[in-house]
Every structure is written in structure tokens, then in C-alpha cells.
UniProtKB/TrEMBL annotation:
InterPro entries: GHMP_kinase_N_dom (IPR006204), PoK (IPR012043), Ribosomal_Su5_D2-typ_SF (IPR020568), Ribsml_uS5_D2-typ_fold_subgr (IPR014721). The keyword ATP-binding applies. SUPFAM superfamilies: Ribosomal protein S5 domain 2-like. It comes from the Archaea. It comes from Methanobacterium congolense. It is an enzyme of class 2 (transferase). Belongs to the GHMP kinase family. PoK subfamily. Residues 68-155 form the GHMP kinase N-terminal domain. Signal peptide: none annotated. This is Pantoate kinase. GO terms for molecular function: ATP binding; kinase activity.
Length: 295
């Protein structure tokens, strides 16, 4: 039994953290962009026992923890411990973007795990309910707040209501004419531990104060340039962007439709009409408008 799932990488431009005692209802509001590069998950059930997870062909205890958490949540909900005493789950994640750098890779791995198990075992789950388990894993691990619903939606995504798919609400910009062929250019300088920001009350206050009114401004003018303008404003007013990232952002600003910092990663990103850039080692992607899917 095998299946494959693709989850687009997702870069958040701005957001607001919304707390809730119910983790399905906890999350973020804001906006971001899904890329045609992301996480492809191959899953197989074979004879044996236990779970094996690799990222780009390697065992990685830190970054595979989200996958193990997702599978554990499914095992508990559907009482599958006995089944997995005689079956081995083999999960292989292939990533086209850097880990821990603001590309939503933990959400992509969680979606690959939840969708894969749901399909292979024919569990009584709809698409959104399977994705909601990935969201729960993200909340428990403090690895993300809104990437799961954004990666399910695709496009330049507006997270209108916080929460898991099926609970929260997401929309996307309509890209007209030449906008359908826009590029996302990004360059990563390093990692930021998401939990160190979203779990810090000082950063959280800055994020929410700044991000609270930006979504309504994007809804008033739902345009890629407006998205980038508001993202830049957010990165500056929250003081999350360090001088190294700012230097890259300013280079990209001159070459593109607008640039900012990926939330949350030491990564500069821009939306551009062309794939050309003077930034060495940049990742050049298109916008993925389809969202998470079986492949």
C-alpha cells in the first residue's frame, strides 16, 4: 500500500495570533503565498512494526518530530496501536526548500503524514478532517499556526478566520492575465525557531498590534503589490527583520514588485514578474494555486 502527497511551501507575509483553548480553533489570521516547490511525501505500509521517517533520505530526529506527532494523533483517535504492532509505516519526505526558514515545511510534513495515513488505511476522514489533524500536530509542537490551512488553499492566501481546515476560513487572490505567471524569489540566510517567537509574549504583543488591521487593508485592495507592501510594513513594525535580511530585502525591492521577510524565518522573499535576480543562490518558484494534493 503506497501513496504520494504534495504540499506546497508557504511563506507568510503578515499575521495575527489568535488564542483559543481548543487547539482546532487556535491559529492565525493573515496572508501569505504558496509556492510550486514544497514537500512531497511518499508513504508505504509494509510488514513489520513501528514508524520510519526520513527527510531527503536522512533520519532527522528534530525535524521529523512533527511527522511522528501527526501519526501518533491518528493512532490515538482511531485506536490503531494494535494494527501498527504488525505493520510498519515508512514515510519519505522530499523537500525542495530549506527547513526552519519560513517555508512552512513542518506543515507540509504533517499534511503528508495525515493525508497519507488517511488514504492508505481508508480511514473515515474527509480531506479537511485529515488536514485538521496536521493542524493539531502543528499547534501541539508550536511549529506553526496557519500554514496548514494556507497550504490546503494555495495561491496568495488570505487566512480570514483562524483554525484548522474545516474550522478556519481561507480565501485567495484572483490573479489576472500576466499575474498568473508571477514568480516568487527567495533567499535564506538561516533558521528561526518558530516557537521562540510565537511563544514569546513580547513578540506576540508586537505581532498582534501590527498585524491586526493589515488583513482588512488587503481585502480592500486584493492585489499582489498590496500584499507585498503590507508584508514589508509588518516586518519593519514588528522589528522581526534583522540587518542581514533587510539588506537582501532592499536588493530584491529594486528588482521586483515588492519584497519582505518570510514569517518566520531568516529569509527574504519577493514577488516578481520575471525570474531574474542579482541575488546569488536564490530559490525561484512559481505560485501554486492548487494547494495540497495527492500525486
Amino acid at each position: 500500500m503506497k501513496c504520494s502527497i504534495f504540499a506546497p511551501a508557504h511563506i507568510t507575509g503578515f499575521f495575527e495570533i489568535i488564542e483559543n483553548m481548543d487547539p482546532v480553533k487556535k491559529g492565525s489570521k493573515g496572508a501569505g503565498v504558496a509556492l510550486d516547490k514544497g514537500v512531497t511525501t511518499d508513504m508505504e505500509i509494509e510488514d513489520g512494526s513501528g514508524v520510519s521517517v526520513k527527510i531527503n533520505g536522512k533520519h532527522d530526529a528534530r525535524n521529523t518530530s512533527i511527522t511522528y506527532k501527526t501519526i501518533d494523533l491518528i493512532k490515538k483517535e482511531f485506536k490503531l496501536d494494535e494494527y501498527f504492532n504488525n505493520k510498519r509505516v515508512v514515510v519519505k519526505h522530499e523537500l525542495e526548500v530549506p527547513l526552519g526558514a519560513g517555508f512552512g515545511t513542518s506543515a507540509g510534513c504533517a499534511l503528508g503524514a495525515s493525508m497519507g495515513i488517511a488514504k492508505i488505511l481508508n480511514l473515515p476522514l474527509t480531506f479537511n478532517r485529515a488536514a485538521a489533524i496536521a493542524h493539531l500536530a502543528e499547534i501541539e509542537m508550536q511549529s506553526g499556526l496557519g500554514d496548514v490551512i494556507a497550504e490546503v488553499c494555495g495561491g496568495i492566501t488570505l487566512r480570514l478566520k483562524e483554525g484548522a481546515p474545516g474550522v478556519g476560513s481561507a480565501d485567495k487572490l484572483i490573479l489576472n492575465g500576466s499575474e498568473e505567471d508571477l514568480f516568487v524569489i527567495s533567499k535564506t540566510l538561516g533558521e528561526i525557531e518558530t516557537s521562540s517567537i510565537i511563544g514569546d509574549p513580547v513578540y506576540k504583543a508586537k505581532i498582534n498590534k501590527t498585524g491586526r488591521n493589515l488583513l482588512s487593508k488587503l481585502l480592500e485592495n486584493p492585489d499582489p503589490c498590496q500584499f507585498m507592501k503590507l508584508s514589508r510594513r509588518f516586518s519593519e513594525e514588528t522589528a522581526l527583520m534583522d540587518p542581514e535580511v533587510l539588506e537582501l530585502v532592499e536588493i530584491l525591492e529594486d528588482e521586483t514588485m515588492g519584497s519582505s521577510m518570510a514569517m518566520l524565518g531568516k529569509t527574504a522573499f519577493a514577488i516578481s514578474k520575471t525570474p531574474d535576480t542579482s541575488v546569488e543562490g536564490a530559490i525561484v518558484s512559481k505560485i501554486d494555486s492548487c494547494g495540497c494534493r495527492f500525486v
